[in-house]
Amino acid sequence: MFGPVLKEAAPEGLQLDSRVCCCDAFMRACVRTSDELGLRARQGELAAARLTRRGKLARQTKAARLSDPPVQDLPAVKCTDPILLDLPDALEGPRVRVRPYQPGDGSAFFRAIDAHREALSTWLGWLEQYPSVEPAEAYVRRQAASWLLRESFVASLWLKESGEYIGGAGFHLVDWRRRRVELGFYLVPSFEGRGLAHEAVSLLLGLAFDHLDMRRVEAQCDAENSRSARLLQRLGFILEGRRRQDTIDGQGRFRDTLLFGLLTSVEAGH
Q1: What is the per-residue pLDDT across 109-141, written as a single tens digit (0 to 9) for each?
Q2: pLDDT digit string (tens) for 200-219?
Q3: How far apart are alpha carbons 56 and 68 in whole angstroms?
Q4: Does domain 82-268 correspond to CATH entry 3.40.50.800?
Q5: Do residues 157 and 196 make contact, with C-beta atoms less than 8 angstroms apart?
Q6: 3-state helix, strand, coil in the chain (%, to 5)
Q7: Kind and range of the H or E element at 239?
Q8: What is the C-alpha radius of gyration for the chain, rounded to an integer number of angstroms?
Q9: What is the tens place of the pLDDT at every residue in 58-100?
């Protein structure tokens, strides 16, 4: 390993006998050979030391990797499959009941929007999709199915005292990996100005943060819809931006959109 072994003989070309002994030449040859052997041995020792250090470093690095926690770009959600989440059948406030749509709700939904088409069309561009009870009923059944599948969470709003349908609200664009949803809501005009929308949306924010384990709720509204903008800001939403003339309202006019965001239940006050 460390080079050739020195044989017990005179170096090649050196003649020795009993009469003549060239001690000086022999010693010089032996010293030279010994020096070469020592140098090779030293080089071998250094190489072995380097290998030892490398092996030790590799073992330490491997141990560190095994002991480090796994790298995760986002915190894990509480439930691996959202369909397994157990959610309340309804959310109850002092005056408002928020519950998923059910088969048969189509008639109440249609009557509410049909009686206020002109007022609602200022902010809602989808009213023409529901000219009769039949497509309205199809809509509420699709929303009921999406709720059960945990694909979206669009709910109906009811006045507890009278049982009247007063609007709709809920979460679209559910992103389970990034733990964010988009909030949408509307109130039948005859029920505005009583704080009912504030109560309903507060209940839904509790659902998002406490039951769905969301981290962020987004919302957007028409830049001229000051009532909705004030409501979002009272609930803790931050105005994050404005998209200019990015949408068309129910009357065919280009409108700006305000973008709001709310982070965590602590920020929302829940």
Answers
A1: 999 999 999 888 878 878 888 999 999 999 999
A2: 999 999 999 999 999 999 99
A3: 18
A4: no
A5: yes
A6: 40, 25, 35
A7: strand 238-248
A8: 40
A9: 454 444 343 434 434 444 456 679 999 999 999 999 999 999 9
